[in-house]
Write a structure and sequence with these properties.
It is built from 24 helices and 23 strands. With 843 residues, it is an alpha+beta fold. It is elongated.
């Protein structure tokens, strides 16, 4: 087979006919650009995080412990690996003459930070200078949100942790933080010695101590962990290495990559229908040329090679342009967002994700364009002498169809080869492919159903039904392409609408307005009285809850140390970190037991615990099993008395913790209490001040600012997510535009015949407009139905949020789709009527 001859024919035809492939090229361009952008962004952020992981950890090792500092032996062990620096983080109340509010306060020693610098502005130039004692007052550096909350400027005084301190500078950045300081509330740095002087770091107090190590040589954390365990020290100390500092962020970038890759693949699949339609339309327009080549002795192999090369070159053209855009997205994002983009970056052009994106584009193009190519290859020489060729009896293009199936398998193989954990992308690919096949099958079923209904129609309706069920029906093309785009877009819009509503409406109505912590156990009656005087209904469970507050670490299961690898991944949080818990006598109204029984209100026997049902399932335990906890610096064991079904985030103590303990044994330690209260926004400040006057050390969290900040973040993210999902919708619209152009050519004879038999111009236009709108109505109904159904499952089962259908956004999506389709049908009618009927029929 002469490759050079085939290439010459292919290039010669492309020179004059490339304009017919605009939709084909654009469809591939969009999908490849999305996948290339996803991979490039992931590489940029992943490499940036890897490069900055040492800075984000604050060193090479980090020892973390709660409610105490490292003891002498533990501190000496850490110092044996290099230079050390200590920090202690705690929540305190800040107080000025007019404002009292919670502050995230971090005490740092003179060696902090071991790597990098704390960015300061508007005052002292260095951290050591800023934190010095001047005129009997310790210096603090604070976030902009701190200055805004307390209405302060640099140089002003404020009370923190029982100390009168002076704001000496504004804190712009910290080397061990990705985000700007103060994103969720006021933050401040103070000298560690100041906290020690104030007596705020006593064993049992609520604070988190961290000792970071800057090693003199590269360190592997596993041998260090084994050596530390060999000391036989407290199990509450957690040791982290550089990789642990970026695990969560790396997971986020991988999830972003998977989502955007799925968007790109879905756009390619939706656009692939348009590519197939464009290829079929073009190849049918070349029927005469193909027949002539065959009459002159060209075999099917040469025909396949000529037009296969054309389709490949065009796919490479669209894919190459998509690669250029995808590779440039990280640079564009950096130029537009600048300092607002806080994630560490390693800007460069990364070949691997670009090659992967191009491979996806070429394989999708092959899967959709090869079947029309097979039909063209089977064109007989007799087509030279006939304007229409009946293809029903032609030899089936099994070679091309088989190659198309192989291309689909190659896409799956590509996902397996290029992903460290391909399970998620394979599930998403499978779901996308399944939905696409469902649309294709449904299209043929609907076409058959409409065909059966055609005889019942009259006049204009009969013509519309006949067109929708005939050989040139729109449904097999519109339903898969437009339906897939609508399904994905409606799914994303519905999920993010529900999440935004949960944060901005549902959560504020169900979550407490105020959360009080570190209430002295000996002062709970006085505390309750203060809130009652301030108007809080302390006898109403819907307005007020209070109970003991415990920080516990789960360490043993039925007498054996817990291997975290044996715990379900989704529930490892109950083992990995210290968790909040409480003590409760009588079961409150929101507690729903799924197994076991609640202890009597006056119970004083051996320690028992009620465990959240999903946590118990993840741990592999049930009623009657025993769990070991570290609490108040000692090991205790509790028998599981019951399992609870928990709806997280509700107004209640038991609905916000995995473990609830029985009364009796733990109460002997007189633990501090936590309280939840509902209050109007106008009364919050007065309540906080009244509590502060009587209990200066009680910490009060206001939930409204945090919820507002979270809503803003999700709102900003939703814009990007919707824009990405919109690519699939654009691909579907490209299919519509391809159909408009294709139908304008195909329906010319039909329109001419209708005019010849007496149809008025307006009637022809209405037929086509109604046909396109009816097909779009079906695509919108099916696509939106599938998308909303998928969103319901995600909102209810993944996010465990309350469900509502966002009627207005979905109506706008459906309305825009119908409008574009109707106008497109009208345009098709205009095009078909633009030439005189006699000229069309003569041709």
């Amino acid at each position: 087979m002469n490759l050079s001859l085939a290439l010459r024919f292919a290039l010669r035809e492309l020179t004059g006919e490339i304009r017919h492939f605009g939709i084909y090229v654009l469809s591939i361009f969009l999908g490849v650009a999305a996948i290339a952008a996803a991979g490039s962004l992931t590489e940029v952020f992943s490499n940036g995080l890897d490069n900055q992981s040492r800075y984000l950890l604050g060193g090479d090792l980090r020892f973390t412990v709660s409610q105490r500092r490292l003891d002498t032996q533990e501190r000496a062990f850490a110092a044996g690996y290099g230079d050390i620096a200590e920090t202690a983080g705690l929540n305190v109340m800040g107080q000025t003459a007019d404002v009292r509010s919670q502050v995230d306060l971090v005490g740092v020693d003179a060696a902090y930070p071991l790597l990098g610098d704390v960015g300061l502005d508007g005052g002292a130039q260095s951290l050591s200078e800023a934190l010095q004692v001047r005129e009997g007052r310790w210096g603090v550096v604070v976030s902009q949100s701190f200055l805004d909350t307390f209405d302060l400027d640099v140089g002003d005084s404020v009370q923190l942790a029982g100390l009168n301190v002076t704001v000496t500078a504004r804190m712009v950045s910290r080397p061990d933080m990705v985000q700007a300081p103060g994103g969720f509330g006021p933050e401040a740095l103070i000298a560690l010695d100041a906290l020690l002087e104030a007596g705020r770091l006593q064993p049992g107090d609520i604070f988190t101590s961290r000792v970071r190590v800057r090693s003199r040589e590269p360190l592997d954390v596993e041998p260090v962990q084994r050596a530390f365990d060999a000391l036989g020290v407290d199990e509450g100390v957690e040791l982290d290495g550089r990789d642990d500092a970026v695990d969560g962020l790396q997971g986020l970038t991988e999830l972003l990559n998977t989502f955007l890759t799925l968007i790109g693949i879905a756009a390619l699949i939706a656009g692939g229908v348009g590519a197939a339609e464009a290829a079929r339309s073009f190849l049918q327009s070349r029927t005469g040329t193909i027949a002539a080549l065959k009459a002159l002795g060209a075999d099917g192999g040469l025909i396949r090679l000529v037009y296969g090369l054309q389709l490949l070159l065009l796919a490479l053209l669209g894919g190459g342009a998509g690669l250029g855009l995808g590779a440039g997205i990280p640079f564009l994002l950096d130029a537009v967002m600048g300092e607002a983009l806080r994630l560490p970056q390693a800007l460069a052009v990364y070949p691997r994700p670009l090659l992967e994106a191009l491979a996806y584009g070429v394989l999708i193009a092959a899967a959709f364009a090869l079947p029309p190519l097979g039909e063209a290859r089977a064109t007989p020489p007799a087509a030279l002498f006939r304007s229409q060729v009946d293809r029903s009896g032609l030899k089936r293009a099994w070679v091309e169809r088989g190659a198309a199936v192989l291309a689909l398998f190659a896409i799956v193989a590509l996902a397996l080869v290029t992903r460290d954990d391909p399970s998620l992308i394979l599930i998403l690919l499978g779901a996308t492919g399944l939905v696409f096949v469902l649309f294709v099958v449904l299209a043929f079923v609907l076409k058959a159903l409409i065909s059966a209904l055609t005889g019942l129609g009259r006049g204009l309706g009969r013509l519309v039904l006949a067109n929708m069920s005939g050989p040139g029906s729109l449904i097999p093309t519109i339903l898969p392409a437009l339906g897939l785009g609508l399904a994905l877009l409606s799914l994303v819009v519905t999920v993010q609408s529900n999440l935004l509503r949960q944060i901005s409406e549902t959560a504020p109505s169900q979550a407490p307005a105020l959360i009080f912590t570190q209430i002295p156990g000996s002062g709970v009656e006085q505390f309750d009285g203060i809130l009652s005087e301030a108007g809080v209904e302390i006898g109403d469970e819907a307005s007020f809850r209070r109970g003991a507050f415990l920080l516990v670490r789960l360490t043993r299961r039925n007498g054996e140390p817990i291997d975290i690898e044996t715990v379900a991944e989704a529930e490892r949080w109950v083992v990995r970190n210290e968790v909040n818990s409480t003590i409760m006598a009588a079961a409150q109204s929101d507690i729903q037991l799924s197994a076991g029984e609640w202890w009597p209100a006056d119970y004083r026997g051996p320690l028992q615990v009620s465990v959240e049902a999903e946590a118990a399932a993840g741990l592999g335990v049930g009623v009657g099993d025993h769990l070991g906890f570290q609490v108040f610096g000692r090991q205790v064991e509790a028998e599981i008395a019951s399992l609870r079904s928990v709806e997280w985030g509700q107004f209640g103590l038991a609905s916000n913790t995995a473990f609830v303990f029985s009364p009796g044994m733990l109460e002997a330690a007189n633990p501090a209490h936590v309280a939840l209260a509902q209050a109007g926004a106008e009364s919050e400040a007065a309540i906080i001040q009244a509590v502060g006057d009587a209990f200066p050390d009680v910490i009060v969290f206001q939930t409204r600012p945090a919820l507002e900040a979270a809503a803003k973040i999700i709102g900003d993210l939703s814009l990007a997510v919707n824009a990405a999902a919109g690519l699939v919708m654009i691909a579907g619209l490209l299919v519509l535009f391809s159909l408009f152009a294709s139908m304008a050519r195909r329906r010319a004879v039909e329109a001419a015949l209708m005019k010849t038999f007496g149809a008025e111009r307006g009637m022809v236009l209405r037929v086509y407009a109604l046909e396109f709108m009816a097909a779009a109505v079906i695509a919108a109904a099916v696509g939106l139905g599938l998308g909303v159904s998928g969103a319901w499952w995600i909102v209810i089962h993944v996010f465990e949020a309350q469900w509502a259908v966002p009627v207005m956004p979905l109506a706008l999506i459906a309305g825009a789709t119908l409008l574009v389709s109707g106008l497109g049908g009208f345009w098709v009618g205009q095009r078909t009527l633009s030439r005189p009927a006699w000229r069309v029929l003569q041709g």
